[in-house]
Amino acid sequence: MRKIWTIAQKELYIIFRDRNLVLVMMAAPLTVATLIGLAFGGGGGSDISIRDIPVAIVNLDTGANEQNYGAVYVNAFLPPESGTSAPACPTAAATTTEDGSSATLQDLTNAVLLDDAAAARAAVDAGEYTAAIIIPADFSARISYAQNKPIEAGSVEVYANGGHAITAGVIRSITESIGSQIATGTITVAATIDSLIERARSHPAFGLAFLAASQNGSFQPDFACAFVPNLSGIGIEQQTVEGRSSTSPAALLVFFGASQAMFFSLFMGQEGVNSLFIERRQGTLQRLIISPTPRLYILIGKLGGTFIACTLQLVFLFIALTLVGSILNGGLLFIWGNNLPMIGLTILGAALAATGLGTLMAGLARTPEQGQIISQLLNIGLAALGGSFGFQLPEAASRFSVIYWGADAFRKLAAGQNDITLNLIVLFAHGIILFTVGFWFFNRRADI
Amino acid sequence: MPDVMVEVRGLAKTYRRADGSEVQAVRGIDLDIYKGEIFSMLGPNGAGKTTTISMISGLLAPTAGRATIGGFSITTQGMQAKKLLGVVPQEIALYPTLSARQNLEFFGRMYGMGGRELQKNVDEVLDFTDLKERQKDRVETFSGGMKRRVNIGVGLLHKPQLVYMDEPTVGVDPQSRRRILDTVIRLREERQMTVLYTTHLMEEAQELSNRVGIVDHGQMIALGTVGELIQKVGEDDRLILNIGEQSVPDSVRTRLLQEVPGVSTIEFAPPPPTNGNEHPANSQLTILAQRGRRALPVIIQIVNEARIDILSVEVREPDLEAVFLQLTGRALRD
């Protein structure tokens, strides 16, 4: 083990002493992602689709005058059957993405109804949810209309995870929007009832007819839809998820930072493995083989150094992109979320995949030049498939690229989604299989 | 009977070409190298020296045969055998971006050294190679001679019982060459190391070696002390006639063999090709003859009668070059 570590240490020392290499591997992805974020972040850029934001809703509202305005929030985020009193309204909160596809609020979020506000806050702190929407018990009582009772200000708590600034901001924006809608609906109902009373006072015949209609059931007012976002006749400018995303350089930094980090980690993997050829050419590999060090140790040490270099590269990019993203965001923004264990696992999986791909190239290529050309073509092909160049191919095609699986995992984590098991399986399997096959090829032709 | 350090029996290596045909690089070599001796393996480029040594040092797997170092089989007890072996490759095999000391420390660790033992050995090697003042400088900033010294130092660092030096004087200036040869002698005199030395320069082999093995076409064609090998060619002198760009017709060779007493071998070497800018080198006619100085007037007469102008004549006493010439029919430099 000591020899393996010595070889890996030497690899790292040589890699990180090469200023040009460090500049390309560290600064280039950071610069590209930042420039794209700044260039397209002001609008006009491609939209970033954010979906399945995990949200907890706690409706403590006890209602007032047979109305529960907290249920409006619940119905907006959850499918109607899960709500307490679903309004019989057309599609709620439908928004349209820029590619023309329609997305409801239920598509954009993955909401869960909870009973306990403290438990919801704890789950947010634990990273289980991006945000918790907590509706207080007196919410309906405060904002509902009654004669001789003024409408009071009601407030809904949005308890957000600081690690998911973008998606938490989206939830906060939607919550504010729904709150505005309820306020508008309340005012509309109040104004309608006031006008009916006023008219009954000035036209007694209308008042009598209205009273009769109310008593025989032919007049059944349903104000519920007045509280549903987007269905009100009174326009409230609602900031959509897509609208928010397209104007956020930080969100583009999440998107391109993830794919650029993956793209350049492949180059780091390739660069490290190229050192095998360089060592063979400069005679140091032969010298190592002549020493009492098993060949397997030599290969593991060298590729271990490459793996660590890839890992450090991705960690550096996570920190650097977080700094840049925080500056662009105007506040702390963990670029890939704050679920550090899962980010760590994804980084390890991505580094393993990059090293595995490099090993395969080292095993297949006969010369360093051949290895470099094939690797570069392959990396560029994988980058195009995986969306590193700013355009996204159909997902079915993207899935052939390891860049897709890594970048997708980082984006999901950025959106507060922790279900990246499949991504991790693909990344680790990719790395292990390619490393094994590459090692077999390399060892087969190790007669130096 | 001295102790055997290296024992080689029936060692062979066959390569398969891309077209499926086979090339026999080494064809069953038998060899014993004794403890504390300098053994030189002599032969022209492509004779199979490096392939043989690569198999002995565990770099290449033999197609057939076996080799042991200090009694340990290089194929089945590779780790033990390799601990006894230090290698000084022909090309500089160092990390250019690391310092001399870092290179030595790294390779020392690959031989299982660490801590004080490693630092002590590194200091000793830096002293031995006279590189202490430049130990912290990157190897890439060194002159060719200094790189050679670090290259040698890495091979000596773990105090091996056997040191293999593969043509260590190729491409070095005369001063560095002299220094390397002195180092080899010191290894035997001061450290009682066994040295396996390959070269195609017979002067070096003659100066350094206790015994010499001559390799050609993958076979050991002669083995013994320098004196023993020279005896094989008897007292033949070697006459070298430089004849410009001219060729030598077969009739002249026939006359020399038939009419000059004591002539045993005649070898003609045409001038090596030039790139057009260089002054063309001379063709050489090399003749092995007993009492060469006496035979010289007759030889000159026959050559002149064939209208071949002789530019210069050298008469050399019997040496390893003559041995090789007699055994193979061609000069060592070919």
The CATH class name of the largest domain in chain B reads Alpha Beta
**Distinct helical segment count of chain A:** 17
Number of helices of chain B: 11
Overall helicity of chain A: 55-70%
Summed up, the domain count of chain B is 2
Radius of gyration of chain B from the CA trace? 23 Å
Average pLDDT of chain A, rounded to a whole number, is: 75
For this structure, the CATH topology of the largest domain in chain B is Rossmann fold
According to DSSP, the number of beta strands of chain B is: 14
Range of strand content of chain A: 5-15%
**Which two chains touch over the largest interface?**
A-B, 23 and 29 residues
How do the SSEs of chain B run, as a string of H and E? Answer: EEEHEEHEHHHEHEHEEHEHEEHEH
Low-confidence stretches of chain A: 42-48, 82-87, 90-102, 231-247
**What class, by secondary structure content of chain B?**
alpha/beta
Main attributes?
heterodimer; A: 448 residues; mainly alpha; 4-stranded mixed sheet; two-stranded antiparallel ribbon; 17 helices; 63% helix; 6% strand; B: 334 residues; alpha/beta; Rossmann fold; Alpha-Beta Plaits; 2 domains; 6-stranded mixed sheet; 4-stranded antiparallel sheet; 28% strand; globular
Structure description:
The complex is a heterodimer of chains A (448) and B (334). With 448 residues, chain A is mostly helical. Chain A has 17 helices and six strands. In chain A, the strands form two sheets. Chain A has a four-stranded mixed beta sheet with strand order 4-1-5-6, with helices on both faces. In chain A, strands 2-3 form a two-stranded antiparallel sheet. The longest helix of chain A is centred in the middle third of the chain and has 38 residues. The radius of gyration of chain A is 29 Å and the shape is elongated. By secondary structure, chain B is α/β, with parallel strands linked by helices. Chain B folds into two domains: 227 residues, 3-Layer(aba) Sandwich (Rossmann fold); 83 residues, Alpha-Beta Plaits, CATH 3.30.70. A six-stranded mixed beta sheet of chain B has the order 6-7-8-3-9-10, with helices on both faces. A four-stranded antiparallel beta sheet of chain B has the order 2-1-4-5. Chain B has a four-stranded antiparallel beta sheet with strand order 12-13-11-14, with helices on both faces. Chain B is globular and about 75 Å long. The longest helix of chain B is centred in the middle third of the chain and has 18 residues. The chains are: A mainly alpha (448), B alpha/beta (334). The interface between A and B is medium-sized, with 23 and 29 residues.
